[in-house]
Amino acid sequence: MASGSLQRERFTFTPREVLMHLSEILLDSKLARNPYEIHRYLWRLFAGMSEDKRSFLYRVSYGKDNEPLRILMQSLYEPSATDNIKGCGILRKKVFNPALKEKDRLRFVLCANPTKRLAKERCRVPLIDEEQLIAWIQKKLEYAATFENVEITDNRNLYFRKNGKAGKIVTTTFEGLLTVSDPALMHTALLQGIGPAKAFGCGLMLVRRA
Predict the structure, then answer these.
(1) Is 22:164 a contact under the CB 8 Å cutoff?
(2) Contact 80, 47 (CB under 8 A)
(3) Is the Cβ–Cβ distance between 150 and 176 less than 8 Å?
(4) Model confidence over 61-118: pLDDT tens digits?
(5) Measured between alpha carbons, how far is residue 6 from residues 44, 81, 151, 160, 186 in Å?
(6) Which CATH superfamily groups domain 19-96?
(7) In the chain, which segments carry CATH 3.30.70.1200?
(8) Backbone angles phi, psi at 142, to 5 degrees
(9) Cα–Cα distance between 209 and 207 in angstroms, integer?
């Protein structure tokens, strides 16, 4: 998804055509000491599928040290059994298709990686200021929904290693209430995810009717 807001002309399918799979997964915390590895283990749940069928979003609930991580994963295709992945198990699965309508009111939670680009340095840096954070999520969904209220309920630093190099991303959890303006665009946001760092558990917006 582009860094700006959703655009109406980018929507190429009708919501009724797309079903999503939501899976609840337990992952041994020892396998996730490096957050970058979580995505690699989830990727293996789609063994034998072509790369275009392995697209998924996920969200991690971190518990106490040494407790298994509880993960919610959303995918277009059903993940396979985990018999060959020690320390990773699927607790339950369901298929859903949110039948959204204009003016639907939805409560939501979103773990995201809000950033901005510094023109001179040509790099992206995390947003910290609360007003900037709220403006960021409003911009991402400006054509899809309007927000009645938004709260920031968590900020977390994720330290990881990739290809032998250390890195860090800053995540922000948003919760609140929104009203659907364009059901098709809202469906696209739920399907494609919101913002960057999806490989680190960002971008999946969970919703329920208010």
Answers:
(1) no
(2) yes
(3) yes
(4) 987 777 889 999 999 999 986 666 788 889 999 998 888 999 999 999 999 999 998 8
(5) 30, 35, 22, 30, 9
(6) Crispr-associated protein; domain 1 (3.30.70.1200)
(7) 19-96
(8) -60, -30
(9) 7
DSSP calls for 12-47: -S-GGG--EEEEEEEE-GGGGSSTHHHHHHHHGGGT
Q: How far apart are CA 146 and CA 152, in angstroms?
A: 17
Other C-beta atoms closer than 10 Å to the C-beta of 157 total 9
Please tell me which residue, 88 or 175, carries the higher pLDDT value.
Answer: 175
- Mark out the alpha helices in the chain (DSSP H runs): 36-43, 130-140, 183-192
Compute the distance between CA of residue 139 and CA of residue 10 in angstroms, rounded to an integer.
Answer: 16
Tokens 């696209």 correspond to: 188
Identify the CATH assignment for 8-14+98-209 out of 3.30.70.1210, 3.40.50.620, 3.30.470.10, 3.40.50.970. Answer: 3.30.70.1210
Residues of the chain with CATH 3.30.70.1210: 8-14+98-209
Environment class of 185 (CB within 10 Å of its CB; exposed 0-12, middle 13-18, buried 19+): buried
Residue 110, SS3? strand
